[in-house]
User: Fold these one by one.
Assistant:
Number 1:
Amino acid sequence: MKTRSAEQNYRERVARVVAAIVADPMAAHRLEDLARMANFSPFHFHRIYSSVAGETVAATVRRVRLALATQLLEHGGESVTQVALAVGYDSPQAFTRAFGQFTGQSPRAFQQQMQRAVLDGAMAPACDDAGEVPAVRIIDRPAQRVQALRHRGPFSTIPHTQRRLRVLGRGRVVSDWLGIASGDPVDPTSFLYYAAAVSPEPWSDDAEIEPLDIPAGRYALHRLAGPYTRINPAVNALYARWLPASGYEPDDRPTLEHYLNSPRTTPQSALRTDLLIPIRSAHTP
């Protein structure tokens, strides 16, 4: 049986591989080369990687390349066919199928949505087709203790941390799954993210998990429909469109993501996530 320090060593070695894939999504990423990077036998690497990362190497490469595709489509300077070829797909049809599974919409619809967002002066995913202010309700949350796993690595690898927490939570009582974020996702020196589980019992038997206290306070809640790739644009929309005219200002507490269902059992288009922005009454100048 592996010791906990050995398990941590495995995760660090797999993390090096994930970082390499994120740094250069379009590289060949042969299993032999990645196994060598992680100092694992090529014969067993794919099983070790899947057990630690929660997905195959091919799935990680595909997801990171599709994340790159969203960036290329958002900039709007290339056609769908050009983007498909740029991220390694032989045909726009194959790219469209994969992109739809990843985001819940076609590349063309995604690109048009991003272009409308630029014209409207805000990100469209949190708005309806008329470009209206995101629907928000104000709630007060009590203080809450959660069992949290700190994310380490690029913003794009947060799904790995969430999957890791769910693996650690198997067999435990969990009522809700959360994301807890503070700082700027673009600035790794200020960004801090935890995957968190609301559980009646402490997970003190697991060294990776730390108890975290979410302070009580008031939040602006927006229910997001669709894939998790829309979360960051939707949060940006709340800050850009709703907050300035709301009579509130942001408070110094983390932003919360409450995952209401699971992508393992739910189509991307049917995913629902409550986004909670910490607020307080605006000061009168």
Number 2:
Amino acid sequence: MSYAERPQHSNNELNRAGKILVESKSTSKEYLEAIEKVDQWRSCHAYPLNTFQSTLRKKVKKYKGSLVAHRLKRLPTIINKLSRFETLNLTQMQDIGGIRAVVSTVKDVREIQQEYKDSKRFTHALVTEKDYILEPKKDGYRGVHLVYRYHNTLARNGKAKDFEGLQIELQIRTQLQHTWATAVETVGTLKGESFKTGSGSEKYKMLFGLASSAFAITEKQPVLAEHQKLKPENIYKKIKKLEKELNFIENIKGLRAASQFIQQEKIGSYYNIVVLDTVNKNIRIIGFSQDSLKRATKKYAELEAEADRSKDVVLVSAGKLKDLKKAYPNYFLDVKDFLSKIQAIIDAV
């Protein structure tokens, strides 16, 4: 399989390129040169990412209904993160290469989490561990994040040494946690607001926070700090009241009504570039075989460079189209599972 080489630029050069993307005009020569450097840095994470996904797929195989997907971080998201965290450098970013496991229960999450930590054959160095199930983020996000520094002493291919030290983020979450997290992104896309980064309508964010606590109650896990003094029935009543005030379900159904058209090229591909037109609600999928990653990353960079603000472009791998939709429903503007769960809460109050 062909992978992008690790760029010969120093960390200082790469970090400077990241700063240029935040500070310079997108039409400048300096900006275009920085784009190329940042894309080379992003692309080289594909090699360790593939190693991690292979290991994770073996670990979750025994869990019925489990799902594994991995992706290289979108360039606009990289730029946005660098602009939000002024002290963060490009080479310090831990989630440029990200892999995710979605399983049925919190018990499954804990088993996988512990298996990684106990495995003597897993030679990669654990950098950080964040348990957002025991301590949810303020916005309601829940899941477990493990960040590893690539150190593959068991690799048969000597090429592995070229990628020493690159960081990969592993996310493990339940299906219910996944439904919440992807709904936040989807609704944000539909409304043109970035709830994930803390901006957007306060009442929508309040509803997502309440929903997160309601889902946590279902999974017998801690609710958000602001809801700890509330009884479950009071959380459900607040959801019902706020949903009625916002007409949330019907509004979101209306926004996504036009998002049914999917143009797919090369069905059954291993790597897929998903191009979401947020204005026309159209989705284009360009598929690549498993041995065409280098071509896929090159095409990914080209499409990103061509895209305007109305288009989201992402390179992902999750298997068949149905699994791709399950792993990344936000790129298909699919929020029906979340809406059905909110409706069930309302009907039960």
